[in-house]
Design a protein that fits this description.
mainly alpha
C-alpha cells in the first residue's frame, strides 16, 4: 500500500466519526432544499448542508443571475468593481468548484 493510501486509510475513521457527529447535531432545516441538493451527482449530505447554510434561503435572490453572481460563478463585467471590493461568497464558489471536480472525476471513472 502506498504512503498516500495509508494516510487516507488512517484518516478514514476520524472523518467518518466527524460526519456522524455532524449528522446527529444538525437538524434538517429545509428538507425540500436538502433533497434538491442531494439530487445533484457528487453532493453528499455534508456538502449539501454546507451549501444550504451558505445560501441561507434561495428566495432572497430575485433572479438566477443574482444567485450566480453571489456564488462567484461569473466574472465581474467591470474590472474596477472586481478590484475594489470582494463581491459574493467565496465559500460557495469553492463548494461548487469542488462539486464540478468530483463530477468530472466520476465521469472519468465510467
Amino acid at each position: 500500500m502506498s504512503r498516500s493510501m495509508l494516510r487516507l486509510w488512517v484518516l478514514f475513521r476520524p472523518i467518518l466519526t466527524i460526519e456522524r457527529q455532524i449528522n446527529a447535531q444538525v437538524p434538517e432545516h429545509d428538507s425540500v432544499a436538502m433533497r434538491l441538493l442531494r439530487i445533484i451527482p457528487e453532493i453528499g449530505k455534508i456538502l449539501a448542508l454546507v451549501i444550504l447554510y451558505e445560501i441561507h434561503h434561495i428566495g432572497r435572490f430575485p433572479k438566477v443571475a443574482n444567485f450566480i453572481s453571489y456564488a462567484r460563478l461569473v466574472k465581474c463585467l467591470h474590472e474596477s468593481a472586481c478590484n475594489s471590493a470582494k463581491i459574493g461568497n467565496v465559500h460557495l464558489k469553492w463548494h461548487f468548484s469542488e462539486v464540478a471536480c468530483l463530477f468530472i472525476g466520476s465521469i472519468a471513472r465510467v
